[in-house]
Write a structure and sequence with these properties.
Blueprint lengths: L5 E2 H9 L3 H9 L3 E3 L2 E2 L6 E2 L5 E3 L2 E4 L5 E6 L28 E3 L7 E7 L2 H8 L7 E7 L5 H9 L2 E2 L4 E2 L4 E6 L2 E6 L6 H7 L5 E9 L2 E2 L9 E3 L2 H8 L1
Parallel strand pairs: 9-15
Antiparallel strand pairs: 1-4, 2-3, 2-5, 5-6, 7-9, 7-17, 8-9, 10-14, 10-15, 11-12, 13-14, 15-16
Helix pairs in contact: 1-2
GO biological process, one term: enzyme-directed rRNA pseudouridine synthesis
Keywords: Isomerase, RNA-binding
Function: Responsible for synthesis of pseudouridine from uracil-516 in 16S ribosomal RNA.
Length: 236
């Protein structure tokens, strides 16, 4: 099994238990196919999602999977938990294998969660340098004022981590509701930012990640595969 990107000759040498010099002959004879096409170069790079065949026998085939899920309250963003239902538990049994979570949500936070078996893709969405925006709808216990907008935009110093949050966008919908856009995901970040004003977050819902919005027809607890266009939109 291919666990990362590697040269084709190295992969074949390992899988077929032959010296790498013998791989050159096998490739020259056209006995190897990668993703349906004859592969002859020892320098060809393959990854875990390549379909590799030798003399018609399948050596490796694993398709990338990208899933969106509408997370309900009371569900943990984990692959397994002995006490609580996990986001993985909400998926059909045949879809749960080898998935991991792309950006977690707190226990009582609802909304868009992404799951995949593609580690490079998930890292591209969660790495701090990529600055993928996440949109949240927030319901609060006390009224929100324009003072909040300035504070969120300026960033807040979190003493425990010793960091200042990046500028965050805040739009007031009505006195008790707001939209927040973050380009990072610190521990309980939104709750802590409103906590600076002694304003408790009553409900928190993630509506979008990058260009991908949670569809109105995806009910709480339901999931579906991303379309090719949605994957591309998040990857660009």
């Amino acid at each position: 099994m291919i666990t990362c990107r590697t040269r084709l000759d190295r992969y074949l040498s390992h899988e077929l238990h032959i010296p790498r010099r013998e791989v050159r002959l096998i490739l020259a004879q056209g006995r190897v196919r990668v993703d349906g096409a004859v592969a002859r170069s020892i320098h060809r790079v393959v990854d875990k999602f390549c379909r590799v065949e030798f003399d018609g026998a399948l050596l490796s085939a694993r398709a990338p999977r990208y899933i969106m899920l509408h997370k309900p309250k009371g569900v943990v963003s984990a692959t397994q938990d002995t006490r609580h239902t996990t986001v993985i538990d909400l998926l059909p049994a045949h879809e749960r294998h080898n998935l991991h979570i792309v950006g977690r949500l707190d226990f009582n936070t609802t909304g868009l969660v992404l799951l995949t078996n593609d580690g490079q893709w998930s890292q591209s969405l969660t790495h701090p340098d990529t600055k993928v925006p996440k949109l949240y709808h927030v319901t609060l216990a006390r009224p929100v004022t324009d003072e909040y907008i300035e504070a969120f935009a300026a960033g807040m110093f979190f003493e425990f981590e010793g960091i200042t949050t990046r500028s965050a966008g805040l739009t007031i919908i009505n006195p008790y509701e707001a939209k927040v856009v973050l380009e990072e995901g610190r521990y309980h970040q939104i709750k802590r930012m409103f906590g600076r004003f002694n304003n408790k977050v009553v409900d928190l819902h993630r509506e979008a990640i990058g260009a991908l919005a949670l569809p109105d027809d995806l009910l709480s607890g339901d999931s579906r595969a991303l379309t090719a266009a949605e994957v591309e939109a998040l990857s660009s």
